[in-house]
Amino acid sequence: MNSCDTVIICAELTELAPFVNRTWLQECLAHRFEDSCQPPDPEKVFPTPGKELSGLRFYSLDLPEIPGKTLGVQSGVGMVNAARTTAIAIEVLGARQVLYSGTAGGLAKDSQVGEVVFGDNYVFHSADATAFGYQRGQLPGMPPSYAGNERLLASARSLLTASDKKDSSTATGAVTFKNPIFTAETELAGALEEIPARCGTIATGDSFITDSNVNAVRSAFPTALAAEMESAAAAQVAFLSQVPFLAVRCISDLCSPEGQDVYHGNAAVCGAIAAAATICLLSAC
């Protein structure tokens, strides 16, 4: 078995590109306060993958802020892709910890586009076995939800201003990252200045959440901050394998009637913000 310290998984190429190409990361972050940004084709910035397994391309990430060997991989969208990639990262590559990084829809009424959510809990919003006595979101034989790794969460909380160091279930809204994030000189030192962030529940399902289904998800999971299509599946695999897991998501849309168009306009920048937050989190561990 091979061995690596960290595997960072992204569903989309635009979410993985900031990790494999520093110029892409810098250019996208330069547009972080604009309404939308459409960078060039992300495939053009990718190097030759370090290894390929079962059709997945794993890239060795040159991230000076992060100690140890770190690999990045695109899983593809959806829960099956997420679970499959996480299992390969752990069982084949021997990952000691797994992180998901990318975009999400904002579920909280006070969500903001560009806000970072560190997942402290993961649920399946599409799972419903309540007829058999299980909680909504709980798969038979599994726990009702999956907690993010406490060591990684402690690192995430250390990046935030003091007012967010309370229990996330009672938090009334996002705060911002400390500035500067890094004490050492780095181009990421001020990258997250004025970016809102908080820890909270992430809801996962194989549906893109828009105004047609958002109320049902909010009603079933009133404390959830974000909705996407991978994290809970990866968290379940990590739970079964007893490997630390955390997802870092940047809100790209507000589950509105225009959600799909808003997402496409914000995907690259929000993917870069999530990547910067992930790098900061790992550097603080």
UniProtKB/TrEMBL annotation:
Instruction: Report the GO molecular function annotations.
Output: adenosylhomocysteine nucleosidase activity; methylthioadenosine nucleosidase activity
Q: Which PANTHER family match?
A: 5'-METHYLTHIOADENOSINE/S-ADENOSYLHOMOCYSTEINE NUCLEOSIDASE, 5'-METHYLTHIOADENOSINE_S-ADENOSYLHOMOCYSTEINE NUCLEOSIDASE
For this protein's source organism, the top of the classification is: Bacteria, Bacillati, Actinomycetota, Actinomycetes, Actinomycetales
The name this protein goes by in its record: 5'-methylthioadenosine/S-adenosylhomocysteine nucleosidase
Query: Which domain of life does the UniProt lineage start with?
Result: Bacteria
* Gene Ontology biological process terms from the UniProt entry: L-methionine salvage from S-adenosylmethionine; nucleoside metabolic process
CDD domains given in the database record: MTAN (cd09008)
Q: State the GO CC annotations.
A: cytosol
Stored InterPro entries: Nucleoside_phosphorylase_d, Nucleoside_phosphorylase_sf
In this chain the Nucleoside phosphorylase domain maps to: 73-259
Which species expresses this protein natively?
Varibaculum cambriense
